[in-house]
Design a protein that fits this description.
The chain has 1 helix and 10 strands. By secondary structure, it is mainly β. A 6-stranded mixed β-sheet has the order 2-10-9-4-5-6, covered by helices on one side. Strands 1-3-8-7 form a 4-stranded antiparallel β-sheet, with no helix packed on it.
C-alpha cells in the first residue's frame, strides 16, 4: 500500500518560492501517477499538477508557468517547485497516487482533475503566502 509524506511548506512572501517534496513508498512511480492538490479554508480540494509515469506533466491553469512538477532519479520523491507565489496560493498542499490511466486521461483532458480519482494521500503541508 502506498504511503506518502509531504514536506517543504512554510511561510513565504508574495513573489517568493518554495519547493514541496512528496516521499513515496509502497508503489512504483514506473506505474503510478502522482498528483499535487491544495485545499484552502472553506474551499474544495483543487488539482494543481500531476506527473505521469512516462514523465508527462499536467498543470492547472492557475499555476501553469509558475509551478513545476518533477521527480528524483530514484523515482521515490516527487517535487513541486513553486515560483512567483501569490496570496491565493495559500492552502494545505497534498500529494496523492492515481493509476497511470487516470494520469493519461488528465493529460489529454478527458477527465476533470478530481480528488475522487486519486487513492492514497499524504497528510498535507501548509503553504502560506503573505507579506
Amino acid at each position: 500500500q502506498a504511503q506518502l509524506v509531504e514536506s517543504g511548506g512554510g511561510l513565504v512572501q508574495p513573489g517568493g518560492s518554495l519547493r514541496l517534496s512528496c516521499a513515496v513508498t509502497g508503489v512504483s512511480l514506473d506505474y503510478y501517477a502522482i498528483g499535487w492538490f491544495r485545499q484552502a479554508p472553506g474551499k474544495q480540494r483543487e488539482g494543481v499538477s500531476c506527473l505521469i509515469s512516462d514523465g508527462s506533466t499536467v498543470y492547472s491553469d492557475s499555476v501553469k508557468g509558475r509551478f513545476t512538477i518533477s521527480r528524483d532519479n530514484a523515482k521515490t520523491t516527487v517535487y513541486l517547485q513553486m515560483n512567483n507565489l501569490k496570496p491565493e496560493d495559500t492552502a494545505v498542499y497534498y500529494c496523492a497516487t492515481a493509476t497511470d490511466y487516470v494520469g493519461k486521461l488528465l493529460l489529454h483532458k478527458l477527465t476533470p482533475f478530481a480528488a475522487a480519482d486519486f487513492r492514497s494521500w499524504g497528510q498535507g503541508t501548509q503553504v502560506t503566502v503573505s507579506s
